[in-house]
Design goal:
heterodimer; A: alpha/beta; Rossmann fold; 5-stranded mixed β-sheet; 12 helices; 9 strands; globular; B: about 0% strand
Chain lengths: ~350, ~375
């Protein structure tokens, strides 16, 4: 295939995941009964953001305050195309996930709870789905990257058109948050470890429990892989960032680590107007026009800078571009500029 | 051809240092390579229909373009930025749209012109029209109308020996010395016959003369559907082989190079040219405008025949597959694409009725292509995400 989209659900075989003992809490707080207590509980359990692009439950709980939640969307999908975090969570312990789910649904008392999962993970998810069937609506999806992004998932599940689903009363929770919250509730532990997937060409994927705050190099050694001089990318090759395993530390939002040979740099050439970036953009913006407007200061492109605000940083436009233009980076710069201007305007008006 | 640097998205310097760290392994080179491979099919089909002369035209055009590019790369600094695949694709496009009657030396000059124009206009992406298409249009104007083109049919080829197999009476022995005595026949060009017939018929659609004209046209002047489908008719080298174009289209669609919207042009051509045009039949007084409503003057049993002849004899299929697969032809936003295709369909139908010595659909696209960024600016793509 020359053009088109590719990143369907990952089909790699899940390895055995060794059990882990999380650090115990010294002064376990009581089980939370309302939203304020949940905020405090999440802070006490060290349960923060589990993915850079996924809203943390603590932040959502704090910002929603007393507003009514119309729908709770529990996602067993992964934002990173190569990751299978939903299946991994289900394989670790479905009972812990259910405990977390029950607490969230109980506190937010939403009329609808939806559990969206990838069909290819059905085998691993079966024990969880059996138990969850009576508690929530199951939504099997054949998703393709980046359908797991909260904005897109909210559109699939509820027809929501907002960049932040919470604005339309949709609470988004990932399965790992449910798992860690449930574990904390059942065993009175801190979220001191999190599962990290490791990918390397020629080696089957590994899953390890990485201690938060430990060195990334130690995580590789734990998995029996020597990173050597290879390029190390955290959180996916499409949206992640390059890290140095020797100095980088594991944080709560580290989902995957990938090692690969540093590619030969390719020189960007002129846009040939093939339209692939426009076709692949999941939020229907025109990356080529935004690139022309931002990086080339081209007024003819007639791009609206506010369109950059819709970008979800999936990286597909840059990935697919046959001219190798850094479209995503340019759009990110434009978005930062628009946000800066908006903040400036808001500041001026308040003065 | 115009080159507006302000309107062109050019690469900014600076290597990628942010995500994504993975790139689709198809760069511009592979993109044009895929189109080039697909173009071989209709060209090979054209060679099987028109014989050695057509092969020589293709070889001469491609070789001249390659040689000119080699010279430009050798002696100029701008030439070093030219890409071989793009130049060869343009030369192949030119030879596909070249009339079979084109002199070989003229094909060579056209090949050189392709390379020179690419060199002048800059790299792919900087030119606002397809250079190969532009040169092909000039070539068509230079060669003139193909109203009575010869078909050189080899005994052992797909269509067999027309002299022995065809039941039609209108095939005549070629008059040109070059093909006299060979296995060859001549036949009127179907699109020319069609345009002429419809113009006569639209004057008095119900008259006896109109009926007899239609009978003559469909009975004797136009080739039977099977021969139309196989491309046994005068025309352009890469355009006559309908089956070859369809196969090439399938290849391009499989490789995701042919945009699904490309089929829209084909459908819109049929809609605009054959269905919407009856508005002109009732509202326009001039004979030419009335003839746009072609299908409405025909008895129902002839309508399908007309549709088939329209599809097979013009360059609509070729344009729908190859020109729309080439990057830079269409606007980028889906809405502007449909408006563009609607306009292209209407213009193509118009040019088809005028029966100019030009490929109608390709000419329509060539005229609209510089306006593609303008279509994008008036109908921009807006995200579904609300703020």
């Amino acid at each position: 295939m020359i053009g088109g989209i590719y990143f369907g659900p990952p089909g790699w075989h899940l390895p055995d995941i060794p059990p882990v003992t999380m650090d115990p809490r010294r002064d376990p707080p009581p089980h939370p009964a309302d939203r304020t207590q949940l905020c405090d509980y999440l802070a006490a359990a060290d349960l923060g953001q589990t993915h850079p692009q996924f809203p943390s439950l603590a932040n959502q709980t704090a910002s929603v305050s007393g507003r009514k939640i119309k729908k709770i969307m529990i996602s067993a999908l992964s934002i990173i195309p190569e990751s299978r975090i939903g299946a991994i969570c289900a394989k670790i312990n479905p009972a812990e996930i259910l405990a977390g789910m029950d607490l969230i649904t109980g506190i937010f008392s939403s009329p609808t709870t939806v559990l969206a999962y990838e069909r290819i993970d059905q085998r691993e998810l079966r024990p969880l789905l059996k138990l969850a069937r009576s508690r929530c609506r199951l939504l099997p999806l054949v998703s393709r990257y980046p359908a797991a992004h909260p904005a897109i998932l909210a559109r699939i599940v509820a027809g929501c058109r907002s960049a932040d689903p919470l604005e339309e009363g949709i609470l988004t929770v990932d399965l790992l948050t449910c798992l860690l919250l449930g574990r904390s509730l059942l065993h009175g532990t801190l979220c001191s470890h999190r599962p990290v997937q490791i990918f390397m060409a020629g080696v089957s994927p590994r899953v390890v429990w990485a201690k938060i705050g430990s060195s990334v190099r130690d995580v590789f050694l734990q998995a029996g892989i020597d990173p050597g001089a290879m390029q190390c990318i955290a959180n996916g090759l499409l949206t992640g960032r390059e890290i140095d395993p020797a100095t980088a530390k594991v944080d709560s939002a580290l989902e995957t680590l990938a090692l690969h040979l540093r590619p030969e740099p390719e020189t960007p050439v002129d846009c040939i107007r093939c339209g692939w970036c426009v076709q692949t953009c999941p939020v229907a913006i025109n990356p080529a026009a935004l690139y022309a407007a931002q990086c080339l200061h081209d007024g003819v492109a007639q791009a609206n800078p506010r369109d950059a605000m819709a970008c979800i940083d999936c990286g597909l436009c840059t990935y697919i571009c046959p001219s190798r233009l850094p479209l995503a980076a340019c759009i990110e710069d434009m978005r930062n500029r628009v946000e800066f201007n908006l903040v400036s305007v808001a500041g001026d008006s308040s003065v | 051809m115009t080159t507006s640097d302000a309107a062109v998205v050019v690469a900014s310097p600076g290597a990628r240092h942010r995500a994504p760290f993975l790139l689709w392994p198809v760069a511009r080179r592979e993109f044009y390579q895929a189109i080039m491979i697909a173009l071989i099919l209709p060209l090979a089909w054209g060679v099987s229909i028109f014989g050695v002369h057509a092969l020589l035209i293709i070889v001469m055009a491609v070789a001249a373009a390659a040689a000119a590019q080699g010279a430009l790369r050798r002696f100029t600094s701008r030439g070093k930025l030219m890409t071989f695949n793009h130049t060869i694709t343009s030369a192949m496009l030119l030879s596909a749209l070249a009339p079979e009657t084109c002199p070989i030396w003229l094909a060579g000059i056209a090949g050189i012109a392709v390379a020179l124009l690419i060199w002048l206009a800059g790299l792919p992406g900087r030119q606002r029209v397809h250079v190969g298409l532009l040169v092909a249009i000039f070539l068509s104007l230079a060669v003139g109308r193909i109203s009575q083109g010869p078909i050189l049919v080899q005994d052992a080829l797909v269509v067999g020996n027309l002299r022995l197999t065809t039941p039609l009476q209108h095939y005549r022995w070629p008059r040109r010395a070059a093909v006299r005595g060979r296995d060859a026949v001549t036949v009127p060009a179907p699109d020319h016959v069609l345009a002429k017939t419809l113009r006569i018929v639209s004057d008095r659609p119900q008259g006896t003369k109109a009926r007899s004209m239609l009978d003559i046209a469909f009975g004797t002047l136009l080739p039977p559907p099977a021969e139309l489908f196989l491309g046994a008719m005068p025309g352009r080298i890469g355009v006559v082989g309908v089956l070859g174009i369809i196969l090439a289209g399938l290849i391009l669609a499989y490789r995701n190079i042919l945009n699904p919207a490309a089929w829209g042009m084909f459908i819109l051509f049929v809609l605009v040219g054959l269905i919407f045009a009856p508005l002109s039949a009732h509202s326009m007084h001039h004979q030419f405008w009335q003839s746009l409503g072609g299908i409405w003057y025909l008895p129902p049993e002839r309508a399908i025949d007309l549709l088939f002849v329209e599809i097979c004899s013009g360059d609509f299929l070729f344009a729908s597959v190859f020109l729309l697969a080439l990057p830079g032809t269409l606007p980028l936003s889906p809405r502007s694409r449909w408006v563009f295709l609607l306009a292209a369909g209407f213009l193509a139908a118009l040019f088809s009725r005028i029966a100019l010595p030009l490929p109608p659909a390709s000419t329509a696209i060539l005229m609209l292509q510089p306006l593609a960024p303008w279509f994008d600016s008036i109908l921009p793509r807006r995200s579904w995400i609300k703020f």
